[in-house]
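seq as requested:
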Amino acid sequence: MASADAIDVEVAYATPPRQITKTVTLPAGSNVEQAIRASGLLDEFPEIDLAQQRVGVFGEFVRLDEVHAAD
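struct tokens:
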């Protein structure tokens, strides 16, 4: 569980044969790209190109520099 100055974030990625989720604890105010990088998914899936692929939060496309607060 994260402290008041930190947030727990779940990052997910799926391909037809494989789906994976990772939970990371980040400083409050971290952005989407920071969460993706902290998850390690870019190492596990080298085909991910953040300059080309779109990402989303709860099914809505977002920018990598967006910050999302926990509800």
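The mean pLDDT is 91.
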